[in-house]
Amino acid sequence: MRICGLNKTTLLDYPGHVAATIFFGGCNFRCPFCQNGDLVLRPESQPVIEEEEIYSFLEKRKGILSGVCITGGEPTLDKDLGPGISRIKKMGYLVKLDTNGYRPEMIRELLAEGLLDYIAMDVKNCMEHYGETAGCGHINLNKIRESINLIKNSGIDYEFRTTVVKELHSDENMIKLGKEIEGAKAYFLQEYQESSGVIFPGFHSCTKEEMEKKAALVRGYVPNVQLRGVE
């Protein structure tokens, strides 16, 4: 596994749990507003943490940590993800996966093997504007819809989430997005934050009032819509 980062303790990444977060390098999307530009565009420039170092750390933190969040980049690109999670699960940890949903076959495999306890999928935008928002010329929307349906019917805890960018997420787009995830258990709208790590700086966040309006528009399809990181 190409592990490029480790947050040893977090109260934010895995809801309800004290967790560690493992960052995988590389991604199949190029979302222009992505905060992890180096992990996505230049994973080879990042220091690699040996797997055994991660496992040793987790062994020592048993009883202190209860969960492990696996994020990136895009972790489902790694062919060794399943065996790696399996080893973590055998230590007694709960595992949360963050994914962009573009490899539904990997998500299906991990779910079938009982390796996930929580899954969070970034739904980038309504289908009409997905490619633009993901920074890719072509997106196979069937893969996105397949992952949405797999997660909704997985039987485990899950959430969908969208980083809301003023230039990309109109009220109309949010209504269309809501229809795509209709009936979901939980949906979070996250505020865009400009930073030095953004792939293409220059986007803007919405005001709190604008975010609340977008949440209200989606609640017609997903009753449990919450704002995250909005002040």
Largest sheet: 8 strands, mixed
DSSP strand count? 8
Spatial ordering of strands, largest sheet: 1-2-3-4-5-6-7-8
Q: What structural category do the secondary elements indicate? A: alpha/beta
CATH class of the domain at 3-162: Alpha Beta
CATH architecture of the domain at 3-162: Alpha-Beta Barrel
| H and E order | EEHHEHEHEHHEHEHE
* Helix percentage: 25-40%
Briefly note the CATH topology name of the domain at 3-162.
Answer: TIM Barrel
Low-confidence stretches: none
CATH superfamily of the domain at 3-162: Aldolase class I
Strand content: 15-25%
Quaternary arrangement of the chains shown? single chain
- Sum up the overall morphology in one term: globular
Write up what this structure looks like.
Helix content is 31%, strand content 20%. It has a domain at 3-162: Aldolase class I (TIM Barrel, Alpha-Beta Barrel), CATH 3.20.20. With 231 residues, the chain is an alpha/beta fold. The protein is globular and about 50 Å long. The protein has helices at 37-41, 51-60, 81-90, 104-112, 130-134, 141-152, 171-180, 208-218, and strands at 3-10, 19-24, 67-71, 94-99, 118-122, 157-164, 187-191, 225-228. Strand 7 (187-191), helix 8 and strand 8 form a beta-alpha-beta unit. Helix 7 packs parallel to helix 8 (208-218).
